[in-house]
Amino acid sequence: LLLQRQTLARADCFHATAESEFEEVRRLGFRQPVAVLPSGIDVPPYEKTSQGARRRLLYLGRIHKIKGIDMLLKAWRVVAPKFPDWELIVAGPDDSGYLKGMRRLARDLGLERVSFPGPVYGEDKLRMYRSVDLYVLPTRSDNFALAVAEALAAGTPAIVSKGAPWSGLEREGAGWWVEIGVDPLVAALETALAQPPEVLRAMGARGRDWMIRDYSWEEIGRQMASVYRWLWGQGERPPCVRTE
What we know:
This protein is of the alpha/beta class. Helices cover 43% and strands 15% of the residues. It has ten helices and nine strands.
């Protein structure tokens, strides 16, 4: 309150990566313009690969309570017997020892076809996104969730909870945006896992096109440059800048 608020009060413009961040700026009482622009991503060349007979559902991110992995495991207990040709991969770095509890929960639930391969980075992460049929993020709260954009950029459709700002998944035909909780997740998984491979591939292709159009660094950089020009008094206010 003594230092940071004074600095923020002098800002000419804020940058929010999602609608939720814009709303938080307003809740804190700041009335300056806000540029609502997501984080940019690198869109790799398109390449889908196969990893054996089973189809694959992937969670990739921090292994942390806020990410809703416990709900995913409970949902998997319901849907896995109905889809024996699918397996679940829960990948990512352990956060504060939460992974041990998730392994124990998987054992207690008697889950089958679930693996915890640990963290993956760089080319290994890209290969994983390319090799799976569907990405899932059942998060309780996320301001952006970069992993969703990375999965879509690799051509993989996604199921994301409304804890993350990805309503465009349904508008773009690239996945499902569902309420937070086990039951909504079960319903979405039952719908998604029943889709033929070619349907999911088509959804992934639409998601990739969406990322190129709206989330590539080239597009985000172009829009951010227009914000700076406007702040210098050059040109009209960009559409990404909110003043209400």
